[in-house]
Design a protein that fits this description.
One of its GO terms (cellular component) is cytosol. Its cofactor is Mg(2+). It is a single chain. By secondary structure, the protein is an alpha/beta fold. The protein contains 4 helices and 11 strands. Bound molecules: hypoxanthine and magnesium ion. Magnesium ion binds next to strand 7.
């Protein structure tokens, strides 16, 4: 079960992810996280799991319906922070795509009220490959038109912050494009000893240190087609292990 919710302030965060240029300030960066306990899970037998994944999963961590509910709340938080400010959403493919689409659906829903509390948006898609460079982690960005970030309030949409090292390498690269502000929304944040301490501004769920799949998050391109977020088991790891790995 979800047992804790903590508010985190990003002021003074050494990641400098709460960076904003110019004087055009948004509200303070505070984000509440739904923390799932280490032993939190749902039985596979209680939910619908595609037959082709029989035997490859250990448990359901977050059912699809709960993901939808949490994304709606994140959309509300985003609306509260940005107000009528136009944002430029940048989806990090492929893992972030389900979260991205669900978030957009919620933001569009706010448009229907056509009052002062909705968030106009533009969007783009990028792919990011991170690799260990000579000094530290390097990133290669493909797709997307990065030049369009200049002067915009950019919100990166990610699937999971695991060690956080890729994000820490990616943000300075994007910052060079001159966005007015740059923030990160991640569906998941893993509690792991390997974390570099990076914190996203909007986080759906804080999860235990387990390898998760589903809701567009993959293990070697498999499991993206699953509605629920699940933990893969040893049989799954072996069945879908890449031939090149
Ligand atoms: N699952 C899938 N991809 C990932 C994970 C995970 O738990 N962590 C980092 N990339
Ligand atoms: Mg990702």
């Amino acid at each position: 079960m979800i047992t804790a919710s903590d508010a985190r302030s990003f002021e003074g965060n050494s990641n400098v992810v709460a960076w904003q240029a110019g004087t055009d300030c948004l509200k303070p960066d505070v984000c509440a996280v739904a923390a799932l306990q280490d032993d939190h899970s749902y039985r596979l037998a209680d939910l619908l799991i595609p037959n082709h994944y029989n035997g490859t999963l250990q448990e359901v961590l977050v059912p699809g319906g709960l993901i939808q509910d949490r994304v709606r709340k994140l959309a509300r938080d985003i609306r509260a922070d940005y107000g009528c400010t136009t944002i430029h959403l940048v989806c990090v493919l492929k893992g972030g795509s389900a979260f991205f689409q669900d978030l957009l659906r919620c933001l569009r829903y706010f448009h229907e009220f056509n009052d002062e509390s909705y968030v106009p948006f533009t969007y783009d898609f990028i792919r990011v490959k991170s690799y260990v460079g000579t000094q530290s982690m390097d990133v290669k960005i493909t797709g997307g038109d990065l030049k369009r970030m200049a002067g915009k309030h950019v919100l990166l949409v990610e699937d999971i912050i695991d060690t956080g090292k890729s994000m820490r390498a990616l943000l300075p690269v994007l910052r060079k494009e001159g966005p007015k502000s740059l923030k990160v929304a991640s569906l998941l944040e893993k509690r792991t000893e390997r974390s570099c301490g990076f914190k996203a501004h909007y986080v759906g769920f804080s999860i235990p240190d387990k390898f998760v799949v589903g809701y567009c998050i993959d293990y070697d391109e498999h499991f993206r087609d699953m509605t629920h977020l699940c933990v893969v088991n040893q049989e799954g790891i072996e069945r879908y292990r890449s031939i090149s790995a």
